[in-house]
Amino acid sequence: MKEFLKVYSILDIVQLVFFKIRTIIFNKNARLIRFPFYVRGKKFIEIGKDFTTGYGCRLDAFDFNKLETKLIKIGNNVEINDNVHIGAVESIIIGDNVLIASKVFITDHNHGNYSGSDVDAPSTIPKERPIYSKPVRIGNNVWIGEFVSILPGVTIGEGSIIGTMSVVNKDIPPNSIAVGSPAKVIKTFDFSLNEWKSVKND
């Protein structure tokens, strides 16, 4: 208890108790929801047990494609910290035991198309460009650092770590550490040696 009081003030403790009571009443499966907590498209969102949030988190699920299915699926024992924004129009699946640091952005869609032949020109109004989407998958036991952006079409394999301020625009294999913009794998875990091994990038 003494250690707890070193971390939290009396006001913090009162807030936590309030948030816990409110969580029990309105989000029975969750462990702790800190408010404000913004949700749009609640019926298109599925959240597992023991979900925990920081302050100012935002979940947006827009069924533009009339899929009438869950667009955001969050597994069990997932913790997202302050100001995380997750936005989906097709599919974002987050596995069990995922830890997401503050100010992380995860999206499965984009305003406009910018590759191939059928592209949107700079002269068109951004908000009027068609929405393009690709599913996002985040495996079990993934840890995502602060200020990370995860872009459409990405799969992050289970057990992987994404370093702070990384932009993930390509798949990351399981049991890897990836950093940078764009994110590149710098280490993989060798289970036979029980250690992280460096990966050379050209």
The coarse silhouette is globular
Strand order of the largest sheet: 3-6-9-14-17-19-20-21
Architecture (CATH level 2) name: 3 Solenoid
Termini distance?
51 Å
Q: Given this structure, which CATH class is correct?
A: Mainly Beta
Order of helices and strands: HHEEEEEEEEEEEEEEEEEEEEE
Major beta-sheet overview: 8 strands, mixed
The CATH topology label is UDP N-Acetylglucosamine Acyltransferase, domain 1
Low-confidence stretches: none
What's the Cα radius of gyration?
A: 19 Å
Average pLDDT taken over every residue: 95
The tally of domains stands at 1
Helix-strand category: mainly beta
Number of helices, counting only DSSP H or I runs of 4 residues or more: 2
Strand content: 25-35%
Total beta strand runs = 21
Provide the helix percentage: 10-25%
**Name of the CATH superfamily:** Hexapeptide repeat proteins
Keywords:
202 residues; mainly beta; UDP N-Acetylglucosamine Acyltransferase, domain 1; eight-stranded mixed beta sheet; six-stranded parallel beta sheet; 21 strands; 11% helix
What does this structure look like?
This protein is mainly β. The protein has a single domain, classed as UDP N-Acetylglucosamine Acyltransferase, domain 1 (3 Solenoid), CATH 2.160.10. Helix content is about 10%, strand content about 30%. It has two helices and 21 strands. The protein has helices spanning about 1-5, 10-25; strands spanning about 35-40, 45, 50-55, 55-60, 70-75, 80, 85-90, 90-95, 100, 105, 110, 130-135, 135-140, 145, 150, 155, 160, 165-170, 175-180, 185-190, 195-200. The strands form four sheets. The protein has an eight-stranded mixed beta sheet with strand order 3-6-9-14-17-19-20-21, with no helix packed on it. Strand 19 (about 175-180) and strand 20 form a beta hairpin. The radius of gyration is 19 Å and the shape is globular. The termini are far apart.
